[in-house]
Each structure stands twice: as structure tokens, then as C-alpha cells.
Amino acid sequence: MLASLDPMMQSTNNCKRIFWNGELFGRLTKAGRNHLINDAGWFYLDTSPPPRGDYNDNLPLAFIWTNKSGPQFATNVLFPALVRPLPTQATNVIDDKILLDKLMIEYGTSHMMPVSVSIDADDFTKKCDNDKLFFVKHRSGAQGKSVYVHNKDSLMEWKEKCRNPSDFIIQEEVRPALDEKGKKFVLRAHILISNSMKSGGSGDNVKKELNSFWTALHEDVICHTHSVKYDKHSTIRSVHISNQSKKKKGGNSGNSPALIAHLPSSHPAHCVFDEMKRCTSKLGYAFIKEMVKRGEIPVHPSVTCFALLGADFLVAADSSLKLCEVNSHPALGWGTMSDVPSEIYDRLVTETLSILLMDAKIDDTGFVSVH
């Protein structure tokens, strides 16, 4: 269990800043925990947590960071914590690929995503050009799972055999930009959305801004390069799907992830950050407006909610940027991101905590405000 010695939180208020390891902290990395202890004055308490699910204690916790499969809490209640993630009920609209596609269409930003083809449309077969490739993705799939590559003929065969086609979205291949070795690549960006005070204000200013959500993009954008040279007609999955670029355990594809800021100037992704900021702004705006429509805003007056999103972008051959998918609970140095240097995610997590819990200004971190 951890507590804070923050001098601004005296008497009973000081008790609010406590938490324990377990299901409420499934996403708090070791670097994040050490940051709270070493840099913010938090410390361990020899106290047992309440029974599982019993979070309505006399005082709320200061902070929790649950996994997607962990307990979820509505935005309009005080318990269990003053700072906590948006519930999956709110983030489902971007996690679900079909709902995300509809969201982008509704807010006039469908051009940001690959062209989607409805499998239930009457003119489905007419829209499927013989010369195009199609990616069939499960609406809730993550980490490259349930992604299939088809041409028109194999797509028709898949459609006939699929028992639950409404659970899938079909996207036309984005004609890719290639690196100097002729390989595809995908960009992983991290987006922080919250209603916390960006400048660490107090008093009346805090009250005015409590329900004003904002969006920020982190400057450390990760480039994952595919392990095999691109060939449109290849049947090798790693040519087309990014997480297939890794070999089996113990192998090495020879393509270490790199930050786009460290790429050579000739790389197609070297100068996409400004365009990524514009795309992120539009995504954040659509998501926040949708939360208002769904009743997830306003939040409880004493609560700060947040989401640290992982967004995958593709660079097209015409240099345009396409939003491939969004994950409200992305891997932070594990799973498909286990080969990313640890210092990248250490920085991301500690700066996220600094903004949410230590009143750090966005401009003093690697995040860039976009909305």
C-alpha cells in the first residue's frame, strides 16, 4: 500500500492519497511505482486492502490504473479513486473498430482511416477490386490477432464460410510508403486524454475546468518495421501484418523499433509528427464529443478521469497519414511492445503520472497539447 506525504493534503484529506498493488493497479509499471515513491514522496503502508470489489470505503483512494479486464467504475461517482481511467463503457467507441469507423464518419474525418467495406452492403462484390488487397479484422481484436489478408477471391470464400461476419470490419489496403529497404512499417503513438488541470491551477479555475477534457500527443512515436520486404502478392503474413514481423521466441527480425525523431531524413515517417498532431486533435475531439453524447461527461466534481491510448498509424505512398486502429489499454513495454527500449515506456508512464498526480504542465513533458 502507498500513501503520500504531500503537505497540501493534511488530516483526513491525506488519507485519500493511498493505494495498494493488485487488480486496481494492473497497468502501473515498475517505473511508474518508483516515480511515485522516489520523486513524489509516496511510500508503502503495511495495510491490507479491502475485500475484492469492496471499494466504497470512507475515503476514496488517490489513484488507480486498472487493466481493461479489471474492475470498471462510472465517471459520475466518487469512489473508488480521485484519479482513475475512463471505464471501458466510454472507451469502447474507439476500441471497437466498427464503432471507431462509424465515429470517424459521423464527425467528418473518415478520410483519416483506410477505406472500409461493409460486408453486408448490396454492392459488396462490386466494391472489391480484383487488384486490391483487403484486411479483415475482428472488431475487438488487439495485438494483431484476428487479422487476415485477402484478395477479392479469397475474401469471397471467407465471407461464405464466416459464421459471424458482423463481428469483422474489412479495410482496403493502404498503398504503403516503404523504407529504404523496401519494407512496410507501422507507427505507434500514445495519446493522453483527461480532464485534469493541464497547468496545475487551483481554486475557481479548477472548478471551471473540471469537465473540460483535453488531448495531448507524446513526442516519442515508435516506428516498427516489418521483417520482410514488401511484395503485394506475397502470402507471407509478416509482409503485411506488423506483429508478425517478430520471429518466434529467441529469434530476432533485425528490425529494432526506433523513434521517428531518430529516423534518417530520407525515411517516409521522419516528418509526419505535425500531421499526426492534426489527426490526433480530430480523433480526440470526436471521442470527447461522443462521450458527452453518451452521458460519460460530466464526471464527478472531485474526480479526474483519463485514458492513455495507443494509436497505430500508417504512412501511405502519397505521404498521407492513416489511422489504422486505437487501443485504450495498449501494451506498455510488454507483449507486442516487448522489444521497445524500456526507457521509452518509462518516460511515457512517469510523465503521464506527473501530469495526472503532480500538477506537471504538459509543456514540461514530452506530451504536446493538440486539443
Give the biggest sheet. 9 strands, mixed
Mean pLDDT: 84
Number of helices: 10
In total, the number of strands is 16
Share of residues in strands: 15-25%
Helix content: 25-40%
**Spans with pLDDT under 50 lasting ≥5 residues?**
5-17, 199-210, 247-252
Distance between the termini: 35 Å
Computed CA radius of gyration, to the nearest angstrom = 22 Å
Query: Outline, from the CA principal axes?
Result: globular
SSE pattern: EHEHEEEHHEHEEHEEHEEHEHEEHE
Broad structural category: alpha+beta
How would you summarize the topology of this molecule?
Blueprint: E1 2-4, H1 11-14, E2 18-19, H2 30-40, E3 42-44, E4 61-63, E5 81-85, H3 88-95, H4 97-106, E6 116-117, H5 124-127, E7 134-138, E8 147-150, H6 152-161, E9 168-172, E10 185-194, H7 204-209, E11 214-218, E12 222-225, H8 237-240, E13 258-259, H9 273-294, E14 304-315, E15 321-327, H10 342-357, E16 367-369
Parallel strand pairs: 4-5, 5-14
Antiparallel strand pairs: 1-2, 1-3, 6-9, 7-8, 7-9, 10-11, 10-12, 10-14, 11-16, 12-13, 14-15
Helix pairs in contact: 2-10, 3-4, 3-9
